[in-house]
Amino acid sequence: MLKIKNLKADIDSKSILNNFNLEIKSGEVHAIMGPNGSGKSTLSNILSGKKGYDVSGEILFENKNLFELETEERAHKGIFLAFQYPLEIPGVNTNIFLKTSLNAIRKARGEKELDAIEFLKLVKIKAKELKFDEEKLNRQLNVGFSGGEKKKNEILQMSILNPKLSILDETDSGLDIDALKIVADGVNSLRKKDNSFLIITHYQRLLDYIKPDYVHVLMNGKIIKSGGPELALELEKKGYENFN
Amino acid sequence: MREKQIDKLKDYKYGFTTDIENIRAPKGLNKEVIEFISKAKKEPKWMLDWRMKAFERLKNLKEPNWQKPKYPKIDYQDIYYYSAPKSASEKPKNIDELDPKLLETYKKLGIPLQEQQRLNGIAVDAVFDSVSVATTFKDKLNEVGVIFCSISEAIQKHPELVKKYLGSVIPLTDHYFATLNSAVFTDGSFVYIPPGVKCPMELSTYFRINASQTGQFERTLIIADKGSYVSYLEGCTAPMRDENQLHAANVELVALDNAEIKYSTVQNWYPGDENGKGGIYNFVTKRGLCKGTNSKISWTQVETGSAITWKYPSCVLQGDNSIGEFYSIAITNNYQKADTGTKMIHLGKNTKSKIISKGISAGFSDMTYRGLVDISSKAKHSTNYTQCDSLLMGNKCGAHTVPYIKNKNPESNIAHEATTSKISEEQLHYCQQRGLNPEEAVGLIVNGFCKEVLQQLPMEFAVEAQKLVGISLEGSVG
Amino acid sequence: MEEQLKIDFEKLLENSNFSKNNVEIKRKSFNNFIEKGFPNRREESWKFSDLNQIISKNIKNLSFYNDLSKPNKIDQSIFIDGLEHNKLVFVNGRIEKIEFDYEEKNKIEILDDLFLEKPKNANNSLLFLNNAFVSKYFKLIVKKNYSLQKPLVIYNITNKDLVSKSINLKVDILLEENSSLKLIEFSDDKSTTNFININYNLDLQKNSFLKNYKIDNNSNSNIKYYFNNISQDNNSISEIFLLSSGSEFIKNEINCNLNGKYASAFVNGVFILNKTKHHEIKTNINHLVENTKSYQLIKGVLEDTSKAVYQGKIFVDSKAQKTDGYQLSKAILLNDNTEFNAKPELEIYADDVKCSHGSASGSLNEDSIFYLMSRGLNYKEAKKLLINGFLLDVVEKITDFEIKNLIKNIMSLKQ
Ligand SMILES: Nc1ncnc2c1ncn2[C@@H]1O[C@H](COP(=O)(O)OP(=O)(O)O)[C@@H](O)[C@H]1O
Ligand SMILES: [Mg+2]
Fold first, then answer.
1. Which of B400, B407, B417 sits opposite C361 (nearest CB)?
2. Is residue A11 in contact with ligand 1, taking CB distance under 6 Å?
3. Inside any domain, residue B173
4. Are C373 and C382 in contact (CB under 8 A)?
């Protein structure tokens, strides 16, 4: 599904990612762990099409060159990024935002757009599954949401948009234990043979709930080690410092 | 020429011209023309005298020039002051008898006038160039005593009300454009809500400029008697032309004890082309007097059109406990210019005012918020809150915020806040990540930015206004 | 008045020996002032303070010529106590002392016979008046890499020998690269009502740092206008604090051009006014290149029938991306006939900027008073505590510790 070859990324001529390689197949769950500032968010930003980086190398998504697609086109194709710091957009109602987003994606895929009633029905179900307070969906997008609420809102959006590749950038940071379970449930319920996940995290804890197929360690801009779930345990014990 | 026009129509869908035979006053500003107007409207002598007084006064006044948008000198002798469709010289009793061309025009503008197609719950007064051509739901309103008609009709049928209130909020001598309007005004709406009546439907006037080289001099007067309520909305459009046309209106509102007037404007006059050629000069004087205790006047405006918009809908808070509000969205794109804001004059005790202004400039345009809050020494326990935000799109446009704040009362409080910013790259990226294209994303974020104001509009118009906000900024996303 | 102006102007030329250039500029400036006269409220920037009216109301027989041939005695008792400092002392418009005892002599230069230039702001008639009547035009240069050991205090003293005159002073200060100066302006007025018109040009070169504290604290009946023109190169910092309190009328105008990247300007001020005093602060901060910053905080406490005006403008050129501009003004009105007028203005032509302004005026917060009274303070004490807190907020912005304490002392002495 996703093939990253020799990805190199600079910002203001400072090298952040270098010789980065990763392949994610349909249905797989990959976890990336790495110290602060190692380039994890940079990777997810580049996958989502954020501007401002000098990039070279190759990223193929379902055999399409990602660099040729705009951010929204990637979203239409099924790439979803749960942001590390979800944005606040004042004045924009969360429900309206979600509906606009869903219909933009459905339209691009040639599917029928949902009317207000159908949409609200869908949201109701999803919100209930994720124990997300529906009243919050009538507020301005992320404005006045707590850190945890913002993260849960990202997961709610993910489950409504039903993406093929979901990238979760430290979605577990700042969540209480109940919220963590809810996020994991959200991921697990989407986990099907055509859907893949890239989960960026610092904590082994989340991986107790979402069993990854692979774990990678990102340091100095590249993956220095890959393995199974046991790698995360090892990392938790040793810390990044002694890992090399 | 035709082709060029059709091409441009994509941007401004109200830019068509209705091909109709007109009756015009001779070009120019003089006694004869004023007499012509007065005669065409079958006005009583006192009205003509009033106009003449204004005309005399005008000779001693100079056009103001302190505003930020400058414009080439207007040749007041090169304008037609009166132009009306020949077929409407006698306003038909029954709307179905109206010239089909006019019916078609309003239908195209989204304002069907005929009985079976009318907008639900909204009474419309349709002003075409210098005359009101139709007013809907008059009978229904009559049943509860609400008078809703053209100002020309009111001068004939309700002279006592007109005499009492016309010029009572904007004095004949107020300033150049107000005085000019007093001399040559043609049509506009008249509303009277009797004591204790809550007007059962929205009232609205739709202003259409059609004839070329013609100025439109609207005059509107709304009186809400004790304990009454009315919500009024005006809309405006004009054909696309290479010339600049002048729309100089005077709007006066009077709210007596416990009365409330809600006045909304969706202004979408032709803004000129992408090179700044043509477009309407929208120079308007709007003022409301909260005359009675506990009265309230609320202005809401969405200003997206016109080459130059220059207006300050104001409130004079004379009655104790009266309330004035001003909610504004002003958008300029290409070479448009706007200098708009409000004045809140606190005279009575416990008066309150609130100003929410959202300015958005794009392209090569220039936007100024100018406002006055004046709390006099007698206006004890009064408050004002002002929030004034500007959004810039690109560095070829300008945003200017000029509030004048005067507090002469130690028991009163004024708070003013203003910010200038742009749409952040991060917000755009977030929306795009969720599948919106850049224009949709900007539309969404800008509508969010304007939300507090959009919420003030009557439901039926809020949706329309939201679309307009998006359309006005088209082509401004790089 | 025009008659008097002409007589006095000729007298000045006769009794001085100005260079040919300066005589020419003076004549032009004089004619320009004659044409325009004192500014009045029809001019936008004098909308809230009609100087023409204020002068004619307060000064009878205003005249313009000062005989500077004889020295004046300096009343040493007014010198600031407990602060070692350098001195420039003007008495009745005449320079009486230049003393830089704490400094390396070759690091400072003082010139006193500069070429006059035509004022850049052609609308400001007071700059023309100043040009016409200024006698010596001083310039202080702080040499490259030098930081003055001690603050410099410029004293402006008037005494009873001066009657219904106008004083015009013009001082330029140049801070060369990497230099720094702490400048205190201190006035002491014992004259009857005069019009004092002072013009400062402050030129901050790269990496230089100016701290400028303007103290107008002693009650007096003079009418004053200060025009401060500041231009700043890369990485320079200006920090201005105004204590606006003593004079009958004073308008402090600050025009600051941020010409160099990473230059920043801080303008903080307090009005403490009573009786019929009328003070104004007007600022124009012009962000002309990228990455510049300005911060303004002005607060006022008004009693009796006093009036304060703040007109603050932030201008951002289309080149000046990444500008950070902030401005806040607040006033507490204590009596029925006090008045606070504000015109905070933003004029912005670049989109990647962060600019905001705020203004608030009104009464003391009764809830806070109530809270303090519930803790045992009486009404007067509670009020005083709140006012001090309100003003202290601004004084705390002063970055020089010693001078901050000095100003705190001066202010609490008053109350
Ligand atoms: N806009 C930027 N400008 C300069 N440096 C940046 C920018 N964004 C990120 N960086 C730097 O890139 C490195 C990687 O950042 P990031 O991808 O956010 O790390 P992580 O998510 O792994 O904590 C850090 O050193 C960070 O400081
Ligand atoms: Mg990160």
1. B407
2. yes
3. yes
4. yes
